Recover the amino acids of this structure.
């Protein structure tokens, strides 16, 4: 009687790549900005390190609540006809802007502004393009709600001009 030979099937293991020091700094900077902001403002955010679901995002956009900001809202580009038709092979991923700010308008409506947090001294064009893409999706989401609009300006919250890596400077731009 010999020993039974057992072969184990290959088990796929995904090992995340080591994050660069710059990427780690970017994540830490974003967390510091959110912590600083949450000391004075109400932020609707997911538990843990997750992202808001589409239902949670819709609730933030439409419900009567006291949250000023939503962190990591879900903006689904499938709501756009950005592909030019169903025959296109273009596929776009769900976007997660760092912050979505909700402000009351003088007529009692709601205006939403998109903000992305970047650990950089100056916002690059591709940072602005990312926020503009989010704005297209947001405008489409709000199209059915006459009392809600997307702001014509976006913002990049970046490293402060004074060189302090613990604070941030808003850099608004026209979308």
């Amino acid at each position: 009687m010999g020993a039974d030979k057992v072969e184990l099937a290959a088990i796929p293991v995904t090992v995340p790549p080591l994050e660069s020091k710059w990427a780690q700094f970017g994540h830490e900077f974003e967390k510091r900005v959110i912590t600083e902001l949450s000391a004075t403002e109400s932020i609707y955010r997911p538990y843990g390190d997750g992202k808001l679901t589409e239902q949670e995002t819709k609730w933030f956009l439409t419900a009567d609540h006291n949250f000023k900001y939503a962190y990591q809202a879900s903006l689904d580009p499938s709501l756009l006809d950005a592909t030019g038709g169903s025959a296109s092979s273009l596929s776009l991923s769900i976007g997660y802007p760092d912050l979505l700010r909700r402000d009351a308008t003088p007529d009692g409506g709601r205006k939403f502004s998109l903000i992305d947090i970047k650990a950089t001294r100056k916002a690059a064009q591709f940072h602005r393009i990312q926020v503009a893409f989010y704005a297209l999706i947001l405008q489409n989401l709000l199209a059915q709600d006459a009392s809600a609009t997307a702001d014509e300006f976006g913002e990049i919250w970046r490293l402060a001009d004074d060189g302090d890596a613990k604070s941030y400077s808003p850099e608004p731009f026209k979308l």
